[in-house]
Write a structure and sequence with these properties.
Order of helices and strands: HHHH
Helix content: 55-70%
Shape: extended
Number of domains: 1
Number of helices: 4
């Protein structure tokens, strides 16, 4: 799968209107207007202090994928 991934920025209001139009004419697309609204309200929170208090360490995606691949090789 030697394909290059291309990300195309689309303004949220335009994406929302497009999703609503597709929903009105009952055409299924991979993104719903509800998902777009969720992205619009998305916020980030700093959870490092809570992780230290709870003694939780999150792995990066590469470490997680490596573990899954190793488990499936067994």
């Amino acid at each position: 799968m030697n394909r290059k991934l291309i990300f195309v920025p689309i303004p949220i209001p335009l994406l929302y209107v497009a999703c609503r139009l597709f929903e009105m004419v009952r055409i299924k697309v991979p993104v719903s207007s509800e998902s777009v609204l969720g992205l619009k309200k998305l916020i980030t929170l700093d959870t490092r202090n809570d992780q230290e208090i709870l003694d939780i360490k999150f792995e990066g995606y590469r470490e997680s994928l490596d573990k899954i691949i190793k488990q499936n090789e067994l």
